[in-house]
């Protein structure tokens, strides 16, 4: 959301996001108020209300700031399928602990507040999908990923499994990652043709 009035101070903005995330870790989104953020960050309430329309909006930005630092989408391999497996494990690990609990609270807020839902789709879901789809398209093009499923279907299927765990507060531990992510990634892998029999 573009601020109205005086330009946003980078230092004040960073302090507000830090205070918001600390409060989310300590109390969760249900108990977060802009008054508490103002008190913790030292910013005025008028500044907060000018820059963010709701607690869901400021919680989204503070959480995204942390997620973007915790999850790397920088490619580490030329193998698209292996890279997608690494990405899924990175996301699953980021969902452990406070980040996952906070994101689950934001998802709950999305069911109540249409503005938070809009921001969740626009600020988290859409940009992440836009970053990952070229990787999946590359895998389809080079033959490592099945061509009979679309990148959007792959994303719905794999990230749906992660969000299922998140909403039910089931840990995405190493055993879960090795099992479920392994099955999902193997399921989108292109079949390997058997070697041709030797000539008679």
Automatic annotation (TrEMBL):
The keyword Transmembrane helix does not apply. It comes from the Bacteria. Keywords: DNA-binding, Transcription, Transcription regulation. It holds the Pfam family TetR_C_11. Residues 10-70 form the HTH tetR-type domain. The keyword Transcription applies. Residues 33-52 bind DNA. GO terms for molecular function: DNA-binding transcription factor activity; transcription cis-regulatory region binding. InterPro entries: Homeodomain-like_sf (IPR009057), HTH-type_TetR-like_transc_reg (IPR050109), HTH_TetR (IPR001647), Tet_transcr_reg_TetR-rel_C_sf (IPR036271), TetR_C (IPR011075). This is TetR family transcriptional regulator.
